[in-house]
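User: Sequence recovery, please. Input:
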C-alpha cells in the first residue's frame, strides 16, 4: 500500500528532502507505544482515541527515488537507511539529515534495524555519557534494542563495560563485547560495591537516585526508557 500523505506540493516545498521507496522497515518500542497509546500521557501529543499519524513506523532502509533541489549527499538510486515518519508505507519522504548511505556489507533488513535504537545508544554513550578510553560503564538493559548498540559503542570507545540483563541473555551480551555481565534475577547492581564512570539505565527499571549511587564522584548517569 502506498502512502497517500505526500503530494508533489508537500514533497517539493521542502527542497532538502528525499523521496524514496522502502525495501525494509523495523518495528521498535516507540511504534508499540504509539499504537497502544501507553503511557496515557502520550495521547495528549499523539492522539486521544487513536494515533493522529495515519501510517506508523520510524526505522527504514530503501532506495532514493527522487531528491529536492538542495539535497547534496544523495542521488536517485542510492541505497540509504535511517528514519522518517510513516516507515510502514511503500513510499515516503525524509529530510536529508535523517538518512545515511547504506553500508554495502549490510542487507536492507539489517540496516533497517539500526535506525532509532543505534542513534539513541550513540547519543547516550558519546554525547550524554561522554565515554572515554578506560571508563567503567554500566549498561542496564544491555540485551535490548538500544542496549545491544550501547555495549558495542562503549567497547569501540575502549571502555570497560558491564551489562545488566536477564539469565537467558547473559551469553548474548557477553558475545557482543561486555567485559562483565550481571544477571539481574540473581544480583542487584545497585547493591554492589562497584562504582562506574558512566551508568546508562536504558529500561528505567531503577530510580535515578539508585543509579547515581553507583556513579563515581564526577561520574555521569543517563536515563532512557
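Assistant: Recovered sequence (225 residues):
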Amino acid at each position: 500500500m502506498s502512502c497517500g500523505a505526500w503530494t508533489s506540493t508537500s514533497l517539493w516545498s521542502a527542497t532538502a528532502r528525499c523521496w524514496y521507496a522502502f525495501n525494509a522497515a523495523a518495528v521498535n518500542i516507540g511504534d508499540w507505544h504509539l499504537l497502544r497509546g501507553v503511557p496515557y500521557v502520550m495521547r495528549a501529543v499523539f492522539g486521544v482515541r487513536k494515533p493522529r499519524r495515519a501510517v506508523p513506523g520510524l526505522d527504514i532502509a530503501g532506495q532514493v527515488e527522487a531528491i529536492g533541489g538542495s539535497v547534496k549527499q544523495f542521488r536517485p538510486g542510492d541505497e540509504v537507511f535511517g528514519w522518517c515518519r510513516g516507515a510502514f508505507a511503500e513510499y515516503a519522504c525524509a529530510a536529508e539529515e535523517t538518512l545515511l548511505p547504506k553500508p554495502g556489507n549490510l542487507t536492507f533488513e539489517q540496516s533497517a534495524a539500526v535506525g532509532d535504537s543505534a542513534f539513541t545508544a550513540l547519543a547516550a554513550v558519546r554525547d550524554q555519557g561522554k565515554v572515554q578510553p578506560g571508563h567503567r560503564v554500566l549498561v542496564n538493559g544491555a540485551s535490548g534494542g538500544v542496549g545491544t548498540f550501547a555495549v558495542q559503542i562503549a567497547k569501540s570507545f575502549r571502555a570497560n563495560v558491564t551489562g545488566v540483563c536477564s539469565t537467558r541473555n547473559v551469553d548474548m551480551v557477553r558475545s557482543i563485547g561486555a567485559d562483565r555481565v550481571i544477571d539481574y534475577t540473581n544480583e542487584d547492581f545497585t547493591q554492589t560495591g562497584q562504582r562506574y564512570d558512566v551508568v546508562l539505565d536504558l529500561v528505567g527499571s531503577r530510580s535515578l537516585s539508585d543509579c547515581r549511587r553507583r556513579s563515581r564522584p564526577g561520574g555521569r548517569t543517563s536515563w532512557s526508557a
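The chain has two domains: 8-113, 117-223.
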